[in-house]
Amino acid sequence: MPTRLLLVDDCEIVRMGLRVALTDIEDFEIVGEAGTAEESIQKAEEVVPDVILMDVRLPDRSGIEACRDILANHSNFKVIMLTSFADEDAVVASILAGAHGFVMKEVSIDGLSKAIMTVSRGETILDSVLTRNVLAKIQHKQTDGYMKESLTEREYEILTLIGEGLTNKEIAQRIYLSENTVRNYVSSILHKRGFKNRSQAAVYALEQKQKEYSY
């Protein structure tokens, strides 16, 4: 069965280029297109895609918001965010919205097809340059005396769940702890690793997961 794709971009020429390129790959089937966030939500309901290629910038709302709304109702769908801009904040926001991939539009068709296949298997993929830039901002704290303390087994478990985009309440339900206890663990993780916020922790956790897949 070919992987069913929904193309979302406000530029018709971009959608046409993707359609022409990906239609030539027998593993893929283009089942729909959309030019706005609202249209993408409606189309996702209608065509039931396996993978959605979603532009970050859309005229009515951001693709990240559309991603969050779609996955809230269809957690089995996979979303790859596409962008022309190296926006590190968008990477973090996409991860927290549940996106399975974040790819620059400059990627080759071969690179994009591999990303689609990776995501369709339930794995995640991020543009390597963007990932390095985000992590560099996090990891430079080492030179300031941060990230010296190791995490406990429980803290690492919670960090992993943060990387999956779970809230404190969802984490508490998952591992049978009180929400207040989870909140204390999260504070400890941020302090030990020198993260400024939860978003940085999420990116770090996802990077660790990708390293595990590469071994």
Features:
215 residues, alpha/beta, Rossmann fold, Arc Repressor Mutant, subunit A, 2 domains, six-stranded parallel sheet, 6 strands, elongated
Write the SSE topology.
Blueprint: E1 3-8, H1 12-23, E2 28-34, H2 37-47, E3 51-55, H3 63-73, E4 78-83, H4 88-97, E5 101-104, H5 109-120, E6 125-126, H6 128-139, H7 153-163, H8 168-175, H9 179-193, H10 198-214
Parallel strand pairs: 1-2, 1-3, 3-4, 4-5, 5-6
Task: Describe what this molecule looks like in 3D.
The chain has 215 residues and is α/β, with parallel strands linked by helices. The chain folds into two domains: 3-126, Rossmann fold (3-Layer(aba) Sandwich); 134-214, Arc Repressor Mutant, subunit A (Orthogonal Bundle), CATH 1.10.10. 55% of the residues lie in helices and 14% in strands. It has ten helices and six strands, in the order E-H-E-H-E-H-E-H-E-H-E-H-H-H-H-H. The protein has helices at residues 12-23, 37-47, 63-73, 88-97, 109-120, 128-139, 153-163, 168-175, 179-193, 198-214, and strands at 3-8, 28-34, 51-55, 78-83, 101-104, 125-126. A six-stranded parallel beta sheet has the order 2-1-3-4-5-6, sandwiched between helices. Helix 1 links the parallel strand 1 and strand 2. Helix 4 crosses helix 6, helix 7 packs across helix 9 (179-193) and helix 7 packs across helix 10 (198-214). The longest helix has 17 residues, at 198-214. Residues 141-148 have low confidence and may be disordered.
Give a brief rundown of this model:
The chain has helices at 12-23, 37-47, 63-73, 88-97, 109-120, 128-139, 153-163, 168-175, 179-193, 198-214; strands at residues 3-8, 28-34, 51-55, 78-83, 101-104, 125-126.
